[in-house]
Design goal:
2 copies of one chain form a homodimer.
Chain A (H helix, E strand, L loop, with lengths): L1 H7 L3 H8 L3 H9 L17 H15 L4 H13 L2 H37 L8 H4 L5
The structure holds a DNA duplex (30 and 30 nucleotides).
Chain lengths: ~140, ~140
DNA sequence: CTAGAGTCCGTACCATGGTACAGAGTCAAG
DNA sequence: CTTGACTCTGTACCATGGTACGGACTCTAG
């Protein structure tokens, strides 16, 4: 019991490392209200599995393109079980993702074209600007 | 001639609008060295078609995920015709784009799952956190 | 010729997402 | 019990990509 506590309740440095972020970032998330600040008996604060889950959630949601404040909202929704709003946020974000995906795919093919033309060693000037002229 | 100049050489406000940005943004790009500051005979500076092309290039390259400083480099490469470097930058960016695309696609499906589960109205708590638990 | 819109230039400020550092306290191994 | 690593709190600073503002000047339509 005491042993498992020692293993599962980590000081901030270990906690941050497990979450793939720096200590300062953990503190930053705390300041933003995304992570709780565990109570301590005067000494070091310790972070449990739920904290870790939450930290990882933040990173994942971030990679889904949510801003930190949206992530804050998601975490609150999770707590108060507001499915309707959560679903709506997910759909909104999916929409934004679809637009972003299309944009990045367009960018990718423009760049592809640029790379090919630059490689062809043709006679004209390197068509960087022109590669973006007929954009979309 | 004089007429075509009047049409093609625009004051900054019109120029910015045609480029889809604000006046302040044009000035910002100038401060960053991405756009020239046209000479003026004491009065208003005027922007020609090449400036517009450059401004639009900046926006397009930005949507391809280049940072402003990378865009600066691209513009220089265009000027000095350094194909090798340009090609290399394009390939590097394509690589980054591919990674970003994969990430966003993963995010999209996680969100899809979340939206579906939230809608199902099942009995458990709304599985927001869990939607990101098995991430990738 | 005058009013009002637009321009010029410098500087300040903003949001986002961190990152760094100082000074004091705490913990754990030798 | 000391030493060195780590932690705590607060505050400052950073890069990126803008956005706003003040005061002077200029341009153009009426």
């Amino acid at each position: 019991m005491v042993q498992s506590q020692a293993e599962e309740f980590l000081p901030i440095g270990t906690f941050a490392r497990k979450g793939g972020v720096g200590v300062e970032t953990v503190r930053y998330y705390q300041r933003q209200g995304l992570l709780r600040v565990p109570k301590s008996a005067g000494g070091m604060r310790r972070y449990g599995p739920e904290d870790l889950r939450r930290l990882r959630f933040i990173r994942h949601a971030q990679s889904a393109g949510f801003t930190l404040s949206e992530i804050g909202e998601l975490l609150e929704l999770d707590a108060c079980d507001d499915r309707k709003r959560a679903r709506q946020m997910a759909l909104t974000r999916i929409d934004a993702l679809d637009r972003k995906l299309a944009e990045l795919q367009a960018a990718r093919s423009s760049l592809m074209r640029l790379a090919v033309e630059c490689n062809s060693g043709g006679s004209g000037p390197c068509p960087i600007l022109s590669a973006f002229d007929a954009w979309r």
